[in-house]
Amino acid sequence: MELSKEEKLMFEGVRGEGARKAMEILVALAEIYNAERMIEVKSAQIAGVSYRNLGDAGLEFLEEWAAQGAKVRVPSTLNPAGMDLRNWRILGFPEGFAEKQLRIIKAYEKMGVDPTCTCTPYLAGNLPRFGDHIAWSESSAVSFANSVIGARTNREGGPSALAAAVAGRTPLYGLHLDENRLADFIVEVRCPLKSLSDFGALGYLVGKKISGGVPFFRGVKKPSTDRLKALGAAMAASGSVALFHVDGVTPEAQKKNMLSENAKVLVIDDLSGGYDALNSQGEVIDFVALGCPHASIDEIEVIADLLRGKRVKSTLWITTSSAVKDLAEKRGLLNMIEESGAHVVADTCMIVAPIEELGFKKMATNAAKAAFYAPSHCKTDVRFGSLEKCINAAVSGRWE
Question: Looking at 260, 275, 290, which one is the last position of a domain?
Fold first, then answer.
C-alpha cells in the first residue's frame, strides 16, 4: 500500500518502537481489507480496558507498549473500565481486581490517553463533527458516531484503535468510504415506540434480521438522542450494525438519498418478539442496572424524579461517565438518587464489571444491550422492560 513520508518513518521505527508497532498493526489491517492508503483521524475511543476482559496478558501487553514510548497523536478516551475508579471500595470491588485495573489505566495514561472511561465519549468531551474520520471501538459508540453524528469510523478492535491513536491514522476502507454507507435494508416501523426499551426491542429485532447490514428506518417520528442511542446499541449487540439512518432525522438521511439500488424491505409491526427474547423467568430481583450505554444527564434527571421519596430494596446502579456524574452532582441530582439508596456509578458498566464476584444473580434493566449480554457475560438472569418497571423492581425487589 501507499504510505506517506511520515507513515514510512513510523513504520521503519524512526519515530520510536511504540509508533513502529502501531504502524505494523495498521498496515496489517490495511492489507486484510485491501486499503490503498491511510487516512488521518481526529480522535480515538479505545476498548480493552476492563481487567475482567483483558486479564494479565492484556495488562502486560499495554505496559510493554507504554514502556516502548508509544504516545497518542490525537485526543483519545477509553471504554468503560471494570470498576468505578473513584468509589470502587464503597461498591465492594475486590482489592486484587482493583490493583490490576488501576495498572491498566496508568499504562494508558503513560501513552497520553485521557482516562475518561465511557461508552458515550460524545457526552464526555470526545465529540467529533459531521464528516470527521475517527477510530472508535465500542459498538454502541461506533453506531452513534456514524449514525447520529455523521462521523466516520469502522468498529475497531482495542489494539487497532490504540494503534490509530498512536499513529493518528487508520486504513481507508469500510465505513470511511461513501459507497459503504448506503442502506441495504429499508425498515418500515408500523408499531408504536413509547419508551427507551421499545427502541431497544426494535433494535434487537432488526439486528438479528440484518446482521451487519445498514438499515434505513421509516416511521420513526422525532426520536430523542437517548432513544437513538438505545436503538443503535441494541442493533450492534444482536447483529453487528455499525451505521443506521432514520428518515428525516439522522444527518446523512436529511442531506441525500442513502438507499442502495437493491435495498430489501423489512416490516416491524410487533415488538413482543424482542421483549420475549431478552427476558428470563423469575420474579425476584437483586440488582437493577440502568445506563447501558452510559446514561445522559437527561436520563439521570428522569431517574432521580422517579426515585423521589422512595427507598430501593434491591441494589440499583445508574452507570455513566465521570463527567456526567459530576454534572449530576452540580445539579443536585446525585443527592436525590443517593437518598433512595441507589448508586450513580462512573467509569464502568454492568457488563464489564465482575458482577459474579459481587454476588448478583437476578438483574433487571431497560437496556436491550445489557439484557442481551448479561446472561453470557455476567451469568445473571435478566428481566427487560421499561424504566418505570425497573424502578419499581428496585423498590419492591420483584419484577411485577
Answer: 275
